[in-house]
Amino acid sequence: MKEDILSVLKSNPGTYVSGQSLSEKLNVSRTSIWKYINALKEEGYIIESTSKKGYRLISSPDILTYDEIRPFLDTRQIGREMFHYETLDSTNDKAKELASKPGLDGAVVISEEQTTGKGRMGRHWTSPKHKGIWMSIILKPDLEPAVVPRITHISAASVVSALKELGIDALVKWPNDIILNNKKICGILTEMSGEINKIAYIVVGIGINANLSKEDIPSEISEKASSLFVETGSEADRKLIAAKVLNKFEVLYNNFLNTGSIEDSIKICRESSILIGRDVRIIHRQKETKAHAMDINSKGELIVKFEDGHIEPVISGEVSVRGLNGYI
To answer: Structure pTM?
Structure first.
């Protein structure tokens, strides 16, 4: 009911809506309307109440609920069911818990804070409250488990495309990091549950450092991690960015389901690659090998040329890739 009241207030910007009108429209008592209005105020909505006039929405809080993201969302399925939390250990862990139940294909778990957010290879991901976009997408496609890593490239392409629409030219560090000014501002973690030939569910975690300050970023990673706010000098619109990423993801993901190809996503990742054309270090089981990054193939594998001249694809689940002198 809160959502219905909020929808009515938002559809009448700058004007009062009477309690009687809300009561009749939503078929609840005026006392109930008053209680729901107070609940919305407790969530941070500034609502002006005036006798004989009713209620007027003054401003909305910076929170990532479905009602706040919905005006920017163009999807048919992805994100149309959204689970919003103030605090979670990890959105991926919560998404996996929910994904074990029937349905929820395309649902999104989003939290204002993660206390034990995680990245690839078990790394910790700093996720302070109301500063970033910490969300996980639940997918239940009819695909072979072997192609699941390709979802990471779809996700990376979705993030850089969404940011580009906002005038932010971010780059992809194969396979799952998004870079701005040579610093990581987003990480992607794709996890799967299933059997040898059948996927039960896929969970795609996307963590975007939107409005973290320099002080929010742990000193031990400050040389390689940053945020949109720090790098652009402007506060990021978390609601708009979250919606744009989901919009882009649905288009690229559906194209993959319909055609079996991720070429559209790979094209974006190639054009926005920070690695292609550079010398890199391939790290596999603590062994480092120098190579030259040449391309990304249609499967999403990084094509590299080693110092001895031989060329081969690198599979993302097996290695880490670093620049010769550091992270990039």
So the answer is: 0.90
